[in-house]
């Protein structure tokens, strides 16, 4: 029997669900993103709001993780996390990042690059207050990205902060939102024979320029 590694080269998929043309796409990338995300949610695929976040440390080593988009508008793309996590520390040293959505069932990828800033305290407070109680306590209980001796630490911390704050935990000072302000978008639609559609939007003089890239 061949190994999994041997079988990888044999995997094939033909992409034939849709197309992406310049004429049919929006001139504004935010509107194109809104359309595709709306369609992803309507299709009921698993976690259409999940995106990969890539950051780069001071030693130039990149790292990725999956986070959930919690808002978007003309100002940018928003998610929330622990500011003292690895991604938070890397963004403090290098405030540029990349996001990627991969909607496998729709044969679509969206890539977004740009500068990252913290959301306002008011925005972070509002979102934090909307979370379930156990998630709010969890933000206190988990020293994200730090080494811990075992799961018991998290359980003990959750019990400690649950008893301390009861039903009204305040937002931890180390927890809040980030907003990526895009300066480049890419939209990828799988097509037959690997001749995929790939449109890039980049800012030139304050305007979005749309151009096709070879796949």
- The string of secondary-structure elements, in order, is HHEEEEHEEHHHEEE
Tally of separate domains: 1
CATH class division: Mainly Beta
Cα distance, first to last residue?
A: 34 Å
Biggest sheet overview: 9 strands, antiparallel
CATH-defined architecture: Roll
Q: What Rg, in angstroms, do the CA atoms define? A: 20 Å
CATH topology: Pnp Oxidase, Chain A
Question: How would you name the oligomeric state of the polypeptide chains in this document?
Answer: single chain
What is the strand tally?
A: 9
- Helical content stands at 25-40%
Fraction of residues in β-strands: 25-35%
Q: Please, how many helices?
A: 6
Q: Give the overall shape.
A: globular
Helix/strand-derived class?
A: alpha+beta
Q: Extract low-pLDDT stretches.
A: none
CATH superfamily: Electron Transport, Fmn-binding Protein, Chain A
- Compute the average pLDDT: 94
Task: Give structural attributes.
215 residues; globular; single chain; Pnp Oxidase, Chain A; alpha+beta; 9-stranded antiparallel sheet; 6 helices
What does this structure look like?
By secondary structure, the chain is α+β, with helices and mostly antiparallel strands. Strands 1, 2, 3, 4, 5, 6, 7, 8 and 9 form a 9-stranded antiparallel beta sheet that branches. The protein is built from 6 helices and 9 strands.
Topology:
Blueprint: H1 4-8, H2 29-42, E1 50-56, E2 62-68, E3 71-73, E4 76-82, H3 86-93, E5 96-103, E6 108-118, H4 121-130, H5 133-141, H6 151-165, E7 175-189, E8 197-204, E9 207-212
Helix pairs in contact: 5-6
């Amino acid at each position: 029997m061949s190994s999994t590694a041997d079988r990888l080269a044999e995997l094939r998929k033909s992409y034939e669900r849709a197309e992406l043309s310049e004429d049919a796409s929006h001139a504004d990338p935010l509107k194109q993103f809104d359309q595709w995300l709306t369609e992803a949610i309507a299709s009921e695929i698993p976690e259409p709001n999940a995106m990969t976040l890539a950051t780069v440390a001071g030693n130039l080593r990149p790292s990725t993780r999956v986070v959930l988009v919690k808002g978007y508008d003309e100002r940018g793309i928003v998610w929330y996390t622990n500011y003292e996590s690895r991604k938070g520390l890397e963004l403090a040293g290098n405030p540029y990042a990349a996001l990627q959505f991969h909607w496998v069932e729709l044969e679509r990828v969206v890539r977004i690059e740009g500068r990252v800033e913290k959301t306002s305290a008011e925005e972070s407070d509002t979102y934090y207050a909307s979370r379930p109680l156990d998630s709010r306590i969890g933000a206190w209980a988990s020293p994200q990205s730090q080494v811990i001796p075992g799961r018991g630490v998290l359980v003990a911390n959750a019990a400690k902060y649950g008893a301390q704050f009861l039903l009204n935990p305040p937002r931890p000072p180390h927890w809040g939102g980030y907003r990526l302000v895009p300066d480049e978008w890419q939209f990828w639609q799988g097509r037959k024979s690997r001749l995929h559609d790939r449109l890039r939007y980049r800012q030139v003089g304050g305007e979005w320029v749309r151009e096709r890239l070879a796949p």
